[in-house]
Write a structure and sequence with these properties.
Layout (H helix, E strand, L loop, with lengths): L5 E7 L9 H8 L3 E4 L1 H7 L8 E4 L4 H8 L4 E7 L7 H8 L4 E5 L4 H9 L7 E4 L6 H9 L3 E5 L7 H10 L5 E7 L8 E6 H4 L8 E7 L27 H11 L6 E5 L5 H9 L4 E6 L3 H13 L5 E4 L15 E4 L6 H11 L5 E6 L2 H13 L2 E9 L7 E8 L1
Amino acid sequence: MCKTKKFYVIGIDDNQKQHFTPEIQHLINTHTVFSGGMRHHEIVKPYLPKEYQWIDIVVPLKNVFLQYDLHTEVIVFASGDPLFFGFGNTIQRERPHAELRLYPYFNSLQLLVHRMLMPYQDMHIVSLTGRPWHKFDEALIVGYKKIGVLTDNKEHTPSAIASRMLKYGYDNYTITIGELLGNKEKEKVSTYSLEDIKDNQFSFPNNLILQRTKIHSRPFGIPEKDFHLLNGRAKMITKMPIRLLSLSMLELREKSVFWDIGFCTGSVSVEAKLQFPHLQIFAFEQRKEGRDLIELNSQKFGTPGINSFIGDFTETDISSLPSPEAIFIGGHGGKMHEIMAIVNKALTKEGCIVFNSVSDESYHLFTSALDTNNLLLVETTEITIDHFNTIKVMKAIKK
């Protein structure tokens, strides 16, 4: 079995009548092994030599590359610019030592802005093609003026995107959708309000551009009274100054994974997502009421993407979750030592834990759990809010 030595990657659009340069046409005429998606195959089939082999790009990609390895040279047809969330990136990752020659075309978002006659040097770009919502949620919270989005035909359709935006209060964008761009007979470009399309279907492939119409509120420090509370009990929420101090001590700007244990209303997770929208947040709460509370507060303050888990943390399966770099413990239910033993194993090296001690008992519980797990207490700040007891905001790190 030989490894493929050379890939030629040719970018095309959805035009059923392609116009290849003489150089590209010569490549096609002098090769026999071609690859691409099924849609690409239908478009380029009339231009291929009589005797040719086609390798469909389908998952799992491991099998596709095993087929490539049987040949010294392969011509791959891809959509638009192969290095723009494209198959050129995949080749570089899977076969880094192979020679790669690119013949790019306009990517689909370039085609859309050209149809709109819209300057796009300030456009933020997100791909949802087979990817999770995380980067899109981040873009919404940051509030970019223009957001270009690559869609798919499964979970991330234009209607699904519009519905998610409306669910979390982001009605401050218009949406322009490009369908079948490059197909001269069928392409369509239309602008809508989000409400207009939340239940609509669109021809695929498509993409979209969001243009902001107004600023969405993004508060820094949310008053306790503004949250949906557990049984209306304001004492069951981390007070705003303590919440902000805790987040400051967690140093989340350069971290990517944050766990919030004992979230109750979700105030810490919501505040963290607003201020650090790049974070992956995993929030845990024993009370069943927490499921609705964190979702209601996420919708109210526009923080999609917080992953919540209900049940006893010490019995929760965390094996599939990414390791946290920072952890806030808002409640322990009398199981501080058990919780600390679990998080100590999960926490990354030099990761940190912040805990708010409200009594001498909780202070000693936390410090003894630190000693047991060889964690280092590095900072303690005392703060008093109004007539409430003094709170010790404590930070420990994994040595």
